[in-house]
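agent> call fold_tool(seq_1)
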Amino acid sequence: MKQACTLITHVNPLLIVVLTITLSMGTSVFAADTAPCAANADSRQLDYWLGDWSISGPGSTGMATSTVTASLDKCVVVEQWSDGKGHNGENIFGYSPNDKGWRGFFADNRGHVHAFVDGKVSSGTAEFTGPSRGPNGESVLNRIRIVRLSPDKAEQTWDKSTDNGATWIPQFRLEYTRKSS
């Protein structure tokens, strides 16, 4: 019993220090601003794209749709789209205040996945780029642009480059028309 009391006496001050540090770190980490993105103007730069949209483009059947929402306390913008023929996808965009840049992630129900590691958004124009591999393993740079044409119209384009951005090959151009409420 005497050994147990001696051990507790020697450990107790160390335990108190560790618990104090842990609790103070936990408080500062978890007691963050409850709406950091909603109040950050940089995080809100894609708000012009929020809403329900009809999508048209070359070869389009006119049945393509998109719903763009703010999620996770307005920290990310999520697009859920459908071409009206069974091809569906989700695109997620978020602003990182730490490095003052945007990131994007695209995935669809056909197994296509793209990460856009460099994004810039300002004045109704968004541009995201990111690397991928082509069908023969070659390096490809992808660029997506989302441009506000008017309060009720936006354009999305996707280009690819196999020479690290020196030249671009258009993949598609889509026009978004806001659905009436």
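agent> call fold_tool(seq_2)
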Amino acid sequence: MPRSLRLGPGLFVTGTDTEVGKTVVAGTVAATLAEQGHAVSVFKPAVTGTGDPAAGPPDHERLRASARSGQRPADVAPYRFEPAVSPHLAGRQAGVAIDPAKLRASARLAAACGDVLVAEGVGGLLVPLTDGYLVRDLAVDLGLPLVVAARPGLGTINHTLMTLECARAAGLEVRAVVLTPWPAAPSAMHRSNRETIAAAGGVAVATLPWVDTSRAALAAHDLPVARWVTPSAGLVAA
């Protein structure tokens, strides 16, 4: 199995769980980079839950809008399924075998569409994309540094520190944790969670309040995105 496709500058946004704000964080990163003048491409290996119209636009469409990307939806997310279940189960139910080689090839093509790639995972790092191939395996293959989206409230210390250990055990570099949605009036618990994760995890911890998913709103937030993107590539604000 290949390791590190050397895609160039970019970030891989993962989460401590599902529904923890990965798409909002990834969209904020993409929109911020686009506002700085970069040609941003986006990638998500699989999208599930597309069959629920009440959920709004699926994640890959939100990512495209955030980045102002000209990519086709199929180029952003090579696998798309209606049931809101894990990708390996969605693929099995649809009679579709998710192919790790296709995921790697799709990520390479996505990266070629811009000068910086923002990839978003599915659920957490140990979610299986297919039998024997986890989200973490894909992150290792892409060779991008991680940003971890996490909840700010009770339970986040354990979930976040486990995610950091899981990532580092595979040799992945975690550039930051983003707690979201960060409350307007954080409690002592919220502040302690942030401080504890930073100290115990040895990681920078940023916060992001609730935002709508319009590109302008996402780009308005002051996350230190330029510091998170691969420094060896020399990416700076345009």
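agent> summarizing second result for user.
The first strand starts at residue 10 and ends at 15. The chain has one domain: 10-226.
agent> awaiting next instruction.
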